[in-house]
Amino acid sequence: MRSLLWDRPLERSWGWSSVIAAVTVSYLTIGVLALAAWWIDGDLDWLVKFFQAPGAAILIWLAALELWLAVSVIEYYSPDDLLRPGWTLIACSAAVQLCGMVFSQVIGVKSAGNPLLVLTGLPDSSFALARHLGLAIGGTLRFGLLSAGLWFALKAYRQAGMLAKLALIDWAVLATFAGYLARNVWDVARAFRAGIRPDIWHVLSWPVDPLLWLLLAEALLLFRSARQMEPGLIGLCWKAAAMGVILTALGDIGMWASDYGYLRWPWNSLTWYLWIPAAAAFARAPALQLEVIRDVTTR
Amino acid sequence: MVINKEYNTDYQYRLATMARGYHARRWKDRSRLLREMSAAARTFSHCSRRNRTGALTRYVVALHQFTDQVVDLLPERLRKTVNAPPQVRNEGRRRALRMKTAGARTAGRAVPEDDAPRLLTWSMTRPHAEIAGDALNLRIASELSDYLGAAGVDRIVELAANNGGDLPAAAESVLRLFIGQMAAPLLVKRIVDRGIRA
């Protein structure tokens, strides 16, 4: 968590990485206050209002920032550089994440902040459609592009001879996640046998978990490699990206546990808070890289 | 505060230089004061060359203040030196000056008279010697560790040893992978320049 929120590449400057950390901590504090207000007051409206307005706003802001920063990073790489296609893929994943967030958090929600609700009298099914579309874009497509982008980072570590090996605990985490994947596949097979036919949105979401497993494996390798190098400015960026993936995987498992009744109300609401630091970590990754490169090229 | 300029400036300057070295190696997290100290030391050095006494005194006062605040952060070995009685520290300073004089004799440069204040002025105004070889590589490695981490630098040193000992070239080839071919040569050049002039 330290690398996610506090590690600053350059002590003298307060760049975007620090701004993201400060804003995320402020929002999380407000979110925890809303949670406390709900527990004390018993009025769920506190929490709903937080996630509908400020919660959605910060997720969209972080996605937009991630896109802008990743595009800015690309400009510092030549076409021959190994990480240029990697950062291009990461920028594309940030772009689809932003689209997905807008669809799932704004257009797909019946709230006062939805422009479609104000402008047109669309039926309820349109909001559900927009939400499904947002989740599909921000899920399968986003994770596919991101895993391809992180692959290039691993390639850079390997070419530099600095690729670490996974620790025993990492293998245990990956095995547990693989078990979770197998359980999901088994559930789908059972549903088919029971004659249930999934809709297109369900089918589109199937690759999400395998992609998350792949991303988790990449993130753990990146984290170990960056950690093996000991504290250095270049490793911070990949540590942040790895932390984003780990938090996303945790959030995904939290959602599954809520759906299957393993994590009961109101405790499952705590998993909602994981998405904000996860988005912050993803946005901090290009911010940290940009700060290091700008420091080198402008001084 | 009473300032014995000749004694204090030299002592503080050396302390600031030491602190700067320690900062570069391991005190990344608590280095604001040390950065300020080293900046003040550099300014002091600049002022002393131009004989601006007012500015010099101001920076000596600043250095005193920074030193007071920073002494507690120093490692035990250095703290003992700092807290030692003045005559002990003076002896160390005289020894350092004698060594500098001997070094100058060996190098065939003009040696000033054996007079402490003049020696002090001479030692501070003489051009800084450029360093090379292993000493330079050590400095480059130290600077690189800020970017790649200590273990990352070890890997580069190993790489350089296998390729004829060219550390800057090895560093550039690795940095190119991570920060691209536009930024990597600039960073290596900056680090080498800083290493030579330090």
Number of domains of chain B: 2
- Structural class of chain A comes to mainly alpha
Given the structure, what is the number of helices of chain B?
9
The most extensive interface, with participating residues per chain, is: A-B, 29 and 27 residues
H-E order of chain B: HHHHHHHHH
Helix content of chain A: over 70%
> Given the C-alpha coordinates, what overall shape of chain B results?
globular
Largest sheet of chain B: none
Helical percent range of chain B?
over 70%
Oligomer: heterodimer
- Radius of gyration of CA atoms of chain B, rounded to a whole number: 19 Å
Tell how many strands the DSSP assignment of chain B holds.
Answer: 0
Shape of chain A: globular
Low-confidence stretches of chain A: 1-6
Instruction: Give the N-terminus to C-terminus distance of chain A in angstroms.
Output: 30 Å
Q: How would you spell out the order of helices and strands of chain A?
A: HHHHHHHHHHHH
Distance between the termini of chain B: 31 Å
Biggest sheet character of chain A: none
How many structural units, i.e. domains of chain A? Answer: 1
Question: What does the model show?
Answer:
The complex is a heterodimer of chains A (299) and B (198). By secondary structure, chain A is an all-alpha fold. Chain A has helices at residues 2-5, 16-41, 45-74, 83-107, 115-119, 124-159, 168-193, 200-205, 208-228, 233-259, 269-272, 275-298. Chain A has one domain. In chain A, helix 3 runs antiparallel to helix 4 (83-107) and helix 7 packs antiparallel against helix 9 (208-228). Chain A is globular and about 55 Å long. Chain B has 198 residues and is an all-alpha fold. Chain B is built from nine helices and no strands. Chain B has helices at residues 5-25, 32-50, 53-70, 76-83, 86-107, 116-125, 133-148, 150-162, 167-197. The model of chain B is unreliable at 1-8, 26-31, 47-52, 108-116 and 125-130 (pLDDT under 50).
